[in-house]
Amino acid sequence: MSSTVKHVTFREYVREALKNATYEVDHSLGDISCVVAEAPDLPGCFTQGENFEDARENLIDAIELWIMAGLKEGDEMPIINGCCLVIAKKDLEEVKEREEVLLV
After folding, report:
1. Is the residue at 58 inside a domain?
2. Cβ contact 93:7 at 8 Å
3. What value does the mean pLDDT of the chain take?
4. pLDDT value for 4
5. How far is CA 6 from the centre of its chain?
6. Interatomic CA distance for residues 38 and 41, integer angstroms
7. pTM of this prediction?
8. Residue 77 structural domain
9. How many domains does the chain have?
């Protein structure tokens, strides 16, 4: 089995994180409930909303913020579903060079 990593754009990376998202209804406040959404591939990345749709929209924002904060701090982004975030044109050029070497 091949362990090839696919390099993806910011938008595609967010989509990959959303594929593994979990959603759970929280009834801990009694009559008031909310939906808690988490991106398990991104430690500490979670949020909530009044319903599933709100929680999903809030999670998209949380994922984007998590990534941007990590990049600002120089953190390496985790590989999600075999996908790696391309963060600079230089990275993309290196990927293309490696692919060309593999094709030769």
Report:
1. yes
2. no
3. 87
4. 86
5. 14
6. 9
7. 0.79
8. 6-103
9. 1
- Check which CATH number belongs to the domain holding 74 and give it: 3.30.160.250
| Residue indicated by tokens 């989509």 | 15
DSSP of the chain? ---PPEEE-HHHHHHHHHHT-EEEEEEEETTEEEEEEE-TTSTT-EEEESSHHHHHHHHHHHHHHHHHHHHHHTPPPPPBTTEEE--SHHHHHHHHHHHHHHH-
Q: Is the pLDDT confidence value at 8 over 90? A: yes
Dist CA 6 CA 54 (whole Å): 30
Tens digits of residue pLDDT in 42-68: 999 999 999 999 999 999 999 999 999
Distance (Å, whole) CA 59 – CA 36: 9
